[in-house]
Every structure is written in structure tokens, then in C-alpha cells.
Design a protein that fits this description.
This protein has 2 domains: 3-164 and 364-399, NAD(P)-binding Rossmann-like Domain (Rossmann fold, 3-Layer(aba) Sandwich); 167-354, NAD(P)-binding Rossmann-like Domain (Rossmann fold), CATH 3.40.50.720. It has a 7-stranded parallel sheet with strand order 10-9-8-11-12-13-14, sandwiched between helices. It is an alpha/beta fold. The protein has helices at residues 13-18, 49-52, 80-88, 102-109, 125-130, 149-154, 167-182, 185-193, 219-230, 255-261, 281-286, 304-312, 343-347, 363-383, 420-428, 456-467; strands spanning 4-6, 9-11, 71-74, 92-95, 114-117, 136-139, 158-160, 211-215, 234-238, 250-251, 264-267, 291-295, 316-321, 352-354, 408-415, 432-441, 444-452, 472-478. It binds nicotinamide-adenine-dinucleotide (NAD). Nicotinamide-adenine-dinucleotide (NAD) is lined by residues 142, 164, 166-167, 170, 215-221, 238-241, 268-272, 274-275, 296-298, 322-323, 357, 359-360. Catalyzes the reversible oxidation of 3-phospho-D-glycerate to 3-phosphonooxypyruvate, the first step of the phosphorylated L-serine biosynthesis pathway. Also catalyzes the reversible oxidation of 2-hydroxyglutarate to 2-oxoglutarate. Residues 409-479 form the ACT domain. Belongs to the D-isomer specific 2-hydroxyacid dehydrogenase family. Keywords: Amino-acid biosynthesis, NAD, Oxidoreductase, Phosphoprotein, Serine biosynthesis.
């Protein structure tokens, strides 16, 4: 194997690679990363950084080693936008349309550094234990329940997802449902599908001038607020924290005030113990007679038998549900009493729109998820940034520049035990640590340090010293 010139420093590739192979493949070449195609995000900023920063040539693109050595397995028909981001980096990308049975998955995962999945692939402890080269998991979806994230963290494997790429899709669905409920569109359409002409105006309303009450004013709730005001609605919202209102929306101090003041109530809170059945009999009693309820958040938020009672009593004039306490694992005739004991009562109600958890299911959302998760994977592999990781502390350092050719970035994922930083800093302390950041999440801590003016042999020494500490989970070197 030849020596490779890295900026000003000449490094002996053979000896070096022997000591780095626990996270990388055997093939080795140190790259000086001469072409700056993107930069690290500044802390707190995720998203389309690759394209936005493409022209900033002063930034040095870090790499763990030759990018063609990075092996990526993408399962479950990951959107092309995501595949494109990864192949553009020069990584070896294998793409499969389906998920894999566990034994096949174990065979494949042994070899890869990155795996991209959606909701069907289960990355259990049994599977992850075999993934000796794995650096990072990308969940190209919202949820991460399919991954044993704690086991992954304990073994130095970061997990990323895309929680907010579909916020707009949900907000638009809710706008459609507000009008559909006010005009009883679901009932009129299904009557006519059965051949019945039923032209009525009684109980049908315009939404202009009506009040929309939003419970949970986060990514989706605030998008919805803007759309609803544009359609002539008055918006009030209730949230656990004080928030800046969009447009002329007003925050109300209690859930009761929201329920009493709204013609339409829509829920956009996370699933938490506090939000479990947060709309039940008492809350239906506080709603205006003839008002409407929409839930596209989580199924546990509404007490559905209480909703059925409120609709039968005429208290609630219509409802739209996209999420349920139990949801089937696949498509088919599963929405029945076996799944949820009240399913058939719910189905029999008038003016109720029932959708199969499609709030975020649009082409645009899939495409945005593809880009967001792939970019997070690239940032993690190339620069070590954990911004947005669901199982690691969020750590990032500002980018190195082309004027810093002999700098190295050390990443040390370790058990969060007393005295560990003293030992790490004893190792790094003799060198010029330009910048350093560390944070912990539970038992796992993540340290990044940029060190200037180091030769190949010093990098090797630093690497070996960190590797020999008993607190070590994973050590990585980027340059
Ligand atoms: N139907 C779908 O396909 C779909 C798609 C995406 C998201 N979702 C769900 O929508 C919900 C909202 O998502 P988001 O991205 O807007 O979340 P978010 O985290 O951006 O916002 C949630 C808001 O709820 C508030 N909140 C938390 N607990 C509360 C409480 N007890 N009372 C009042 N407010 C409270 C938070 O302060 C926050 O402002 C989540 O449950 C998410 O899982 C559903």
C-alpha cells in the first residue's frame, strides 16, 4: 500500500490503517479532501445545507477515509432524493425495494457502515450485535420504535430520523377536513356513490368567520394557524408552553377556554402521559354544541368511546380521525372490533372522516424525508455531527477550513463515567486542541475535538491512546 500525501503531512498508510479498521473497511487511503462541496451546519440548523453551501470553497470537507469505502445498505424503497445525496458522496450504495427477513438482514448488516430503513425493518439488539462496522442508522420516517435505539447508543451507533418533514402535509390535510366536515362532504359523497341524490344545506356551513382551536402549537399547529387565517378563520391555540403566535392568532390560558371558544378543535400534541385521553367526556362537555373535532396527532389523545357518545348526543357535529390507539401493521380489512373494540360503532356514525394515518403521506414529504435523513447521515459520517440524533447527545463543531490542512478531528464516544474527561484530556492535552465539545445522554457521552498541526504518527498515537481507555465505545478520526 502506498503512502498518501495529506496536505503537508506524509502519512504511512499501511501502519495507520491497521489501527483504524475497527470502524472502517480494510481498503485504505487518506484523503486530503481537496474539494469543498459542503460544510458542517452551525449548531441548531439542520436541513438543506449541502446545496446551500456548495459554493463556500474555504470550508474543508472532512472525511473518515476514502468515501468509496463507506458501504451503505438502503432498504424499503428509500426515496430517490435520499439515494442521490448518498451516491453523490461517492459511497457504495446498495438499494433494495423491500425489507429483509431477520437472518438475511444479519448477513448483510455485518458488512455495512450505514443502514437506511423505514418502519418495517426491525433493528433489534440481536441484529445490531452483529453489525460490527455499523456507524449510523437512518430511519427515513418519523418513528424510531423499530430500532433498539438504546442498544445502538451503547454500541456507538447513532440513529437519525425525520420528525418534521411532513408537517405541511398534515396541516393541509386538516384544512381539507375542516371544510369537508363543515359541508358534510364525506356523507354526500358516499350517498351519491350508492346512487342517492341528497341536496341539503341544513347544518352545512362556510368556515369563514369561524374559530379554529389548535391544541399543540408546534410544527404542525403553527403551519395550520397560518393556513386557517388565510381562509378567514379566527385562530386560538392552547399549548403547554408560551409561544409566539403566528398572524393574529391568540394563545388561551387553559384547555377549557380553548374548547369553549372554538367551532373546530384540532389536536397536534405529542403522545405523552399528560396528553393521554386529553379529550374525554368532561372535555366534550366543555365544547360548543355543534362543534367539530379533528385528530391527526396520536391515537391515544382522544377517548374514542367518549367521542362516539358526544356525536350520538349531537354535541359534536362531525369528526375527522387519522390516528387510532391500535393501528394495523399493513393494508387490508383490519379496521374492525378486533383491532379496537369500538371500531364498528365509530364506522356507523354520520359526518365522520376516517383516514388510515395518512396525514404525512405525500410525495413531497417522502422526498423531503429522503434529503433530510441522507444529509444527516453524510454529516455524521464525514464530520461527526450528531445534530438531530435520537439516541446520542447533540454535538457539533464549526467546520475546519482549507487553511487548516494538518488539523484532525477526533471523535470519542464513551461511557459517561466519573473521571473520563480527565483521562481524555491527559491524552489530548499535549497537543493544540483548537476546539472541543462534549455532551452526554444517559450513559453515553460524545466528545469532538479539533486538533491542529498533527502528523500521521501523532494521529495514530492519539487514536491508540483513546482506544485503550476502558470507557471507550467508539473512536473515530476525521481529517
Ligand atoms: N397523522 C400523521 O401522519 C402525523 C404526521 C406527523 C406528525 N404527527 C403527530 O402530530 C403531533 C404534532 O406533531 P408536531 O410535529 O407539530 O409536534 P411538535 O413537537 O412540533 O409540537 C407539539 C406541541 O405540543 C405542545 N404540547 C406538548 N404537550 C402538551 C400538552 N400537554 N398540552 C398542550 N400542548 C402540549 C408542545 O409544547 C408543542 O408546541 C405529534 O403527535 C406527531 O406524532 C402525525
Amino acid at each position: 500500500m502506498s503512502n498518501v500525501v495529506n496536505g503537508d503531512a506524509e502519512v504511512s498508510g499501511e501502519s495507520y490503517t491497521n489501527n483504524l479498521t475497527h470502524t472502517v473497511s480494510a481498503s485504505f487511503s487518506i484523503s486530503s479532501s481537496p474539494v469543498a462541496t459542503y460544510t458542517s451546519p452551525s449548531p441548531g440548523k439542520a436541513g438543506s445545507l449541502l446545496a446551500r453551501t456548495a459554493t463556500r470553497t474555504s470550508v474543508k470537507q472532512l472525511k473518515p477515509f476514502a468515501t468509496e469505502d463507506i458501504k451503505i445498505l438502503l432498504l424499503e424503497n428509500i426515496n430517490k432524493t435520499g439515494r442521490d445525496v448518498l451516491t453523490a458522496q461517492g459511497y457504495q450504495v446498495e438499494y433494495l425495494k423491500s425489507s429483509l427477513p431477520e437472518d438475511e438482514l444479519i448477513e448483510k448488516i455485518r458488512d455495512v457502515h450505514v443502514i437506511g430503513i423505514r418502519s418495517k425493518t426491525k433493528l433489534t439488539a440481536r441484529v445490531l450485535r452483529e453489525a460490527k462496522n455499523l456507524l449510523v442508522v437512518g430511519c427515513f420516517c418519523i418513528g424510531t420504535n423499530q430500532v433498539d435505539t438504546q442498544f445502538a447508543a451503547q454500541h456507538g451507533v447513532a440513529v437519525f430520523n425525520s420528525p418534521f418533514s411532513n408537517s405541511r402535509s398534515v396541516a393541509e390535510l386538516v384544512i381539507g377536513e375542516i371544510i369537508a366536515l363543515a359541508r358534510q362532504l364525506g356523507d354526500r359523497s358516499s350517498e351519491l356513490h350508492k346512487g342517492t341524490w341528497n341536496k341539503v344545506s341544513s347544518g352545512c356551513w362556510e368556515i369563514r368567520g369561524k374559530t379554529l382551536g389548535i391544541i399543540g402549537y408546534g410544527h404542525i399547529g403553527s403551519q395550520l394557524s397560518v393556513l386557517a387565517e388565510a381562509m378567514g378563520m379566527t385562530v386560538i391555540f392552547f399549548d403547554a408552553v408560551n409561544l409566539m403566535a403566528m398572524g393574529t392568532a391568540k394563545q388561551v390560558p387553559t384547555l377549557e377556554a380553548l374548547l369553549q371558544g372554538s367551532d373546530f378543535v384540532t389536536c397536534h400534541v405529542p403522545e405523552l402521559p399528560e396528553t393521554h385521553k386529553m379529550i374525554s367526556s368532561q372535555e366534550f362537555g366543555q365544547m360548543r354544541t355543534g362543534s367539530y373535532l379533528i385528530n391527526a396527532s396520536r391515537g391515544s389523545v382522544i377517548d374514542i368511546p367518549a367521542l362516539i357518545d358526544a356525536m350520538r348526543a349531537g354535541k359534536v357535529a362531525g369528526a375527522a380521525l387519522d390516528v387510532y390507539p391500535s393501528e394495523p401493521g399493513g393494508n387490508g380489512d383490519y379496521f374492525n372490533n378486533e383491532l379496537n373494540s369500538w371500531a364498528e360503532d365509530l364506522r356507523s356514525l354520520k359526518n365522520i372522516i376516517l383516514t388510515p394515518h395518512i396525514g404525512g403521506s405525500t410525495e413531497e414529504a417522502q422526498s423531503a424525508i429522503g434529503v433530510e435523513v441522507s444529509e444527516a447521515l453524510v454529516r455524521y459520517v464525514n464530520e461527526g455531527a450528531t445534530l438531530g440524533a435520537v439516541n446520542m447527545p447533540e454535538v457539533n463543531l464549526r467546520s475546519l477550513t482549507m487553511d487548516e490542512p494538518n488539523h484532525v478531528r477526533m471523535i470519542y464516544i464513551h461511557h459517561n463515567v466519573p473521571g473520563v474527561l480527565r483521562k481524555v484530556n491527559e491524552i489530548l492535552g499535549d497537543h493544540n486542541v483548537d476546539k472541543q465539545m462534549t455532551d452526554s445522554r444517559g450513559d453515553v457521552a460524545y466528545l469532538m475535538a479539533d486538533i491542529s498541526d498533527v502528523s500521521g504518527s501523532v494521529i495514530k498515537e492519539l487514536y491508540q491512546s483513546l482506544e485503550s481507555l476502558s470507557s471507550r465505545i467508539v473512536t473515530r478520526v476525521l481529517y
